[in-house]
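Page 37, continued from 36.
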């Protein structure tokens, strides 16, 4: 088959690659659409340590089942499917507690941190364990389904956050995940949604997708503005979707006493944060990792057009041109958010 292979750091090559081997409990999927994730772009240069080459990356994908292992039940050739990015163990202590995203020895599709490797979907074919498959509703296209994964990441963060009807939320970071957090918060019954980002074009999109107010820290004093918008109290919940000290501090500063600040972004491995503000204002810091069961709800929301994924799609291109698109994303070309490749 053809695949887009990370041969060495910063070197992606579209070339022949061995077909995946399908285990008894797996199906072989012909990939129709696969999204380039920020973590792939950051992983490409070796800085994250989670894309050790040689590797076929790609964990946001959708396609058609073309063959099935002997033990697969409930699926057939021709089924349109998407799948979780986490390949978790079924016989795991965490999985049995309903926390499969935290299960020990879990693997992520298209990721290789050194001690394990699972080739992903920047390829014509990928083999997928049956227990992470999801059926795509008829109204949802393959390309829309390839964006379910990042929406589900956003939905998981919202699901972990104690929210009451009409609560005010601050979302720090209006990149792809931030834009999905905003949309899921709208669907979840939030009152005021305040989006924060350094780039005005992203804030414009945030407003189109449901933010009531947008704030650019380069132009305004965010803390002052949030207080003015919340009766001098601060937001009931805040989401941090970047992952550096400055944005963590903005999220904490925006939150009212007793609020939850949910941390999704993790660009830097560690971040300083205002400890005394968190303690004396009794703020709850909630980490959010990946996805835990949000796929079916998100597929329904996309089918009902409650979440708009099309607005985030910047381009669809052939997989053979993937290396060039990675370069453009790596160089932070303005206006590019989500690029989906078609094998
Ligand atoms: Zn991703």
């Amino acid at each position: 088959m053809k695949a887009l292979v990370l041969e060495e750091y910063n070197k992606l090559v579209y070339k022949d690659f061995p077909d995946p081997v399908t285990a008894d409990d797996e199906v072989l999927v012909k990939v129709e659409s696969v999204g380039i994730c920020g973590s792939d772009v950051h992983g490409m240069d070796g800085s994250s340590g989670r894309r050790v080459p040689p590797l076929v990356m790609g964990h946001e994908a959708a396609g058609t089942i073309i063959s099935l292992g002997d033990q697969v039940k409930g699926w057939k050739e021709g089924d349109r499917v998407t799948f979780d990015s986490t390949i978790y163990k079924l016989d795991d202590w965490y999985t049995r507690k309903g926390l499969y995203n935290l299960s020990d020895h879990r693997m992520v599709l298209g990721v290789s941190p050194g001690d394990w490797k699972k080739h992903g979907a920047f390829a014509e074919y990928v083999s997928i364990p049956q227990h992470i498959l999801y059926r795509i509703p008829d109204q949802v296209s393959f390309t829309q389904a390839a964006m379910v994964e990042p929406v589900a990441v956003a939905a998981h963060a919202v699901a972990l956050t104690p929210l009451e009807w009409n609560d005010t939320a601050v979302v720090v970071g209006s990149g792809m995940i931030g834009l999905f957090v905003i949309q899921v918060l709208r669907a979840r019954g939030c009152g005021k949604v305040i989006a924060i980002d350094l780039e005005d074009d992203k804030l414009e999109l945030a407003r189109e997708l449901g933010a009531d107010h947008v704030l650019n820290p380069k132009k305004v004093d965010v803390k002052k503005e949030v207080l003015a918008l919340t009766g001098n109290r601060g937001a009931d919940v805040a989401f941090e979707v970047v992952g550096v000290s400055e944005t963590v501090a903005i999220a904490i500063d925006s939150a009212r006493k007793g609020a939850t600040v949910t941390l999704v972004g993790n660009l830097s491995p560690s971040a300083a944060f205002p400890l005394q503000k968190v303690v004396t204002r009794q703020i709850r810091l909630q980490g959010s990792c990946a996805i835990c069961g949000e796929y079916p709800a998100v597929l329904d929301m996309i089918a009902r057009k409650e979440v708009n994924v099309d607005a985030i799609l910047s381009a669809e291109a052939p997989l053979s041109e993937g290396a060039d698109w990675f370069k453009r994303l790596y160089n932070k070309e303005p206006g590019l958010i989500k690029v989906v490749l078609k094998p």
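The mean pLDDT is 96. Flag for discussion at group meeting. Residues 161-287 form a domain with the Rossmann fold fold (CATH 3.40.50.720).
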